[in-house]
Amino acid sequence: MYVIKGENELGQTELSIRRTGTARKWFDLQQSQDNDESIDVTVIEANTGGVIVNIGGGLRGFVPTSQLDNARIFPLGGYSSKEEAGKELQAKLAELIGTELEVKVIEIDREKNRVIFSEKQVTNDIDPEKREETLEKVNVGDVLEGEVTGIAPFGLFVNAEGLEGLVHLSEISWDKVTNPADFHKVGDKVKVQLIGVDNGGKRIAYSIKRLQKDPWDEIIKKFKVGQRVTGEVTKIVDYGAFVRVEDGLNGLIHISELSDKLVKDPGKIVEVGKEYELEIISMSREERHLGLSLKRVNSSSPQPVAESVSESTVSPEMARLSEYLDEDGETEADKKDSE
Predict the structure, then answer these.
(1) Is the same domain home to 102 and 144?
(2) How many Cβ atoms from other residues are within 10 Å of residue 138's Cβ?
(3) Tell me, what's the pLDDT at 333?
(4) Is residue 197 part of a domain?
(5) Quick one: pLDDT band at residue 10, thresholds 50, 70, 90?
(6) By the 8 A CB rule, do 234 and 272 touch?
(7) Which regions are flagged for Polar residues bias (predicted)?
(8) For position 32, which CATH number holds?
(9) 185: left (phi over 0), alpha (psi -120 to 50) or beta
(10) Which H or E element spans position 293?
(11) Which of 21, 93, 104, 262 has its CA 20 to 30 A from that of 230?
(12) Is residue 193 within 8 Å of residue 142, measured between CB atoms?
């Protein structure tokens, strides 16, 4: 029994049955983790990061989305779009409410009243010895052979030599990735580079693109500031227009570079899907995009000589371009889910 007070004013020892049950449950959880044993829990709530489960004894735990069985929540073929991915994932998580899961404890912190579980470590038949063996021998930067085990809105799950980790969508390809399923499917054999090991190997980060040649090695050689190129307008926003110059190479015509005249609506100057001759006015290897100008091609008056952007300086056009890519690429929710 849990002793609340050694002796009260009546000379009696005060005990708590509820706290005794809670203390016992913490002990059982620690034993389960130490012995690598699974336990049953019930899903009582779902949120964007995973599901909250009832452990018993007045305790609750958390199963992150990344630790749920891939087959349970992620479609084999991926998602049709990023927007649909978020909706489908949230719906799948909500469907789990009331479901009993068999899980293993992967993190326990009594002081913070926190318990993290993994369903994958039960359903994926992970060999603990193989996993530990790989963890002991690999270092960040090593290249491993792996297999895609799941496709999530935020990236690919890859099992490499018993060590499952995440290839975040920003590490899949040098091209912009909005749907990981456009690049790989479940069962694909892939080579990955280990780029991060966190919390004793509980979180593993891999990269596929770092094993591929960076296209900007050739882009820097092929294009120069002041050069004229042809590009297709792919999106119009209130501060300008985004343009695809070639596969993997995108740029921005800032609103100030659309015309010599004052422009309030970029849509009145350029059209989506239409090609234009443009001039490169800035390049940033770091930002991996181009600053482009339409007015310098159409203008008859002399224009100042453009200067390339240094690695440490980002032009307003480049800053805007980064905002656009964040909108369609990595979000804060994605970061949290990959953790």
Answers:
(1) no
(2) 18
(3) 39
(4) yes
(5) low
(6) yes
(7) 296-315
(8) 2.40.50.140
(9) beta
(10) strand 289-293
(11) 262
(12) yes
